[in-house]
Design brief:
The protein has helices at residues 7-31, 36-45, 63-74, 78-96, 104-112, 230-257, 271-301, 307-329, 340-348, 357-377, and strands at residues 117-120, 138-142, 145-155, 163-170, 173-180, 186-189, 204-213, 218-219. The strands form two sheets. A four-stranded mixed sheet has the order 1-4-5-8. Strands 2-3-7-6 form a four-stranded antiparallel sheet, with no helix packed on it. It is α+β, with helices and mostly antiparallel strands. It is globular and about 80 Å long. It folds into three domains: 7-116, Acyl-CoA dehydrogenase/oxidase, N-terminal domain (Butyryl-Coa Dehydrogenase, subunit A, domain 1, Orthogonal Bundle); 119-219, Butyryl-CoA Dehydrogenase, subunit A, domain 2, CATH 2.40.110.10; 230-377, Butyryl-CoA Dehydrogenase, subunit A, domain 3 (Up-down Bundle), CATH 1.20.140. β2 (138-142) and β3 (145-155) form a beta hairpin. It is 47% helix and 13% strand.
């Protein structure tokens, strides 16, 4: 099924949102806090409703439209855009994947009523669940009572969230538990704020200390083929691509205005500068094209195979471009006036999101070897060869 909406309304809303976020972004980065006004603006803009079905008050936007909006929003603040992406990816994945058919109306209803959501999965010992293993966070059963106990890291959005979707152990299986963020027993630890990247994202630790849970809060997925959360993968990619685009734009503006006294004209006219700037632009163009193609493949055919490649390409390009912008701006980049330092640091966070580069390279290389062996044997390739791997219908993958 093709789900699409013109990119225009989505990107227009995102650009306006980015402008408001950008005015606060550098101060928020220095303070290590997510501005409450960024969240107010996020809700007022209707941005979180982009993937909601039209009959639920949304635009019914497809992934291709939303990734374009996301890189525009991230140009204002990657930290605030990443917070928004967590809700967008939950809504989009629940809408598009059959396994979530029984739970999607609940997710839709929360967002329709103004919820801000995140799925918290990583833990101190487990790390990212994308590499396997059961979480230490667990459901405990005492008669008919259920309580949640555990410690999660990377809770992007922190106390600004209204609900968290918690990956937890229920016996020997993993389950998703929907928890109101301000329920008794939910305790946030302010562990974030002075790290390398995304200082204003409030990606704090959160502890669940005997949080009472109802059976209806355990989200039930329908059995069937496991599906990677392509919305997560591509929205993450778009976020860091947005940092790189903002760094490029800041560099161009600076180069057009900077007139060294010994030169007598803007550095933007120098052939060497233009050549190096063009190299950055080519990297951005290739990354953007790869990202849009992967999003379109999902919208039109529910193909997930190129999503991990797009994420890798975009994150690599974002890091290359933001570093290149620092080099070309010279000493001016060391100050905060151009925001190039923030964009450079924020882009580094892209390496931490799954799938990791080594996992992508191993899967892609293994797929080539397997396909060659199958071709030599004259048989059809196995299902999934060259695709993005089988990380499950888990909405946090």
């Amino acid at each position: 099924m093709t789900v699409s909406t013109p990119a225009g309304p989505a990107t227009t809303a995102a650009a306006a949102l980015a402008s408001r976020w950008a005015a606060r972004a550098d101060e928020a980065d220095r303070a290590g806090t997510l501005p409450a006004d960024d969240i107010v603006d996020l809700h007022a803009s209707g941005y979180l409703r982009l993937p909601l079905p039209v009959d639920r008050g949304g635009l019914g936007a497809g992934l291709e439209s939303v990734v374009q909006a996301q890189w525009n929003a991230a140009g204002g603040s990657a930290a605030s855009a990443l917070v928004a992406a967590m809700t967008l990816m939950l809504v989009g994945h629940a809408r598009d994947v059959d396994a979530w058919a029984d739970e999607r109306e609940r997710i839709f209803g929360l967002v329709e009523r103004g919820a801000l959501l995140n799925a918290v999965a990583s833990e101190p010992a487990l790390g990212s669940p994308s590499r396997g293993g059961l979480p230490a966070t667990e459901l405990r059963r005492d008669g008919g009572a259920l309580t949640l106990h555990g410690h999660k890291t990377w809770g992007t959005g922190g106390e600004h969230l209204t609900h968290v979707l918690v990956l937890a152990r229920d016996g020997e299986r993993a389950v998703q538990v929907l928890v109101p963020n301000h329920a008794a027993g939910v305790r946030w630890e302010r562990t974030w704020g002075d790290g390398l990247s995304l200082r204003a994202s409030e990606s704090h630790d959160v502890r669940f200390e005997g949080v009472a849970v109802a059976e209806r809060d355990l989200l039930r997925l329908r059995p069937g083929p496991k599906v990677r959360n392509v919305w997560f993968t591509l929205l993450v990619a778009a976020t860091y691509l947005g940092s790189a685009i903002a760094a490029r734009d800041a560099l161009v503006a600076y180069a057009r205005e900077r007139v060294p006294s010994a030169l007598g004209h803007p550095i933007a006219v120098l052939p060497g500068f233009r050549r190096d700037l063009g190299e950055l632009q080519v990297a951005l163009h290739a990354a953007r094209a790869t990202l849009l193609a992967a999003a379109r493949a999902w919208d039109e055919r529910r193909e997930e195979g190129d999503a991990e490649i797009a994420k890798l390409v975009c994150v690599d390009a974002a890091n290359r471009v933001t570093e290149g912008a620092l080099r070309l701006a010279g000493g001016a980049a060391l100050g905060s006036d151009l925001s190039l330092g923030r964009h450079f640091r924020d882009a580094r966070a892209g390496f931490g999101h799954p799938p990791s580069a080594d996992a992508v390279y191993q899967r892609q290389g293994g797929a080539l070897v397997e396909a060659a062996a199958v071709a030599q044997a004259g048989a059809a390739p196995a299902s999934g060869v060259g695709r993005g791997g089988d990380d499950g219908a888990d909405i946090t993958s």
